[in-house]
Write a sequence for this structure.
């Protein structure tokens, strides 16, 4: 047998592709030591600054809380002091005698009020009211004990002579009459003090001798009180009932 060899050319071996070299790496310039530390220092500074801000905020909050606590303590202490003052007995205030006299004269000799006197003389209203009130309570006792006195027997005989010389009426030692003293409006029992003259008033009963010297008086009954009621409730009526004036009469 005859062997036949193919004349077709054998496939060429593959041409190896040239090896690709990696792209050249760009070399970054080396940083100087100072430039490498700068971001780290900036980060540290930012952290430190942030910590300082937090600390300052915490301190401010603590200060505000302390201020609030101090305010609460001060308010409680003030309320406690007011409570202690209210529980203590009233203390006397030393007012010069000149101001005391001026307040009383101003009140009784004019139409001004206690509030006006308090403003003019620089005295608290409550204290000004006390000055007037004490005078009103003490003056009647002093006035009655020193000037308004129930007559003795000898004085009654002299009074009877004076009345007989003026009017020709024997055995009379006094004339008695009543009048109204106008006051401010009342909050309670208004109708009892509102008189027929359309004003609020209290009753005043006076007994005097022939020379118009007062030797007995009664004041304070409501303006609508009947004259007979006022007279019966007076000490003068009791003296008449006890015979202290007999044989004289009014």
């Amino acid at each position: 047998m005859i062997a036949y060899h193919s004349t077709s050319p054998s496939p060429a071996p593959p041409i190896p592709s040239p090896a690709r070299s990696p792209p050249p790496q760009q070399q970054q310039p080396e940083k100087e030591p100072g430039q490498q530390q700068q971001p780290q220092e900036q980060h540290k500074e930012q952290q430190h600054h942030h910590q300082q801000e937090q600390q300052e905020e915490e301190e401010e909050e603590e200060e505000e809380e302390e201020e609030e606590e101090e305010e609460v303590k001060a308010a409680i202490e003030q309320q406690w002091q007011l409570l202690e003052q209210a529980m203590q007995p009233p203390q006397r205030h030393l007012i010069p005698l000149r101001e005391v006299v001026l307040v009383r004269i101003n009140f009784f000799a004019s139409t001004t009020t206690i509030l006006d006197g308090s403003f003019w003389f620089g005295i608290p209203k409550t204290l000004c009211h006390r000055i007037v009130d004490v005078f009103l309570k003490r003056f009647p006792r002093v006035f009655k004990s020193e000037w308004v006195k129930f007559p003795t027997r000898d004085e009654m005989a002299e009074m009877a002579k004076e009345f007989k010389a003026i009017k020709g009426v024997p055995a009379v030692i006094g004339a008695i009459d009543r009048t109204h003293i106008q006051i401010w409006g009342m909050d309670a029992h208004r109708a009892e003090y509102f008189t027929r003259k359309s004003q609020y008033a209290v009753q005043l009963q006076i007994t005097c001798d022939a020379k118009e010297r007062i030797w007995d008086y009664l004041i304070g009954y409501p303006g609508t009180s009947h004259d007979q009621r006022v007279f019966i409730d007076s000490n003068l009526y009791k003296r008449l009932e006890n015979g202290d004036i007999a044989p004289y009469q009014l």
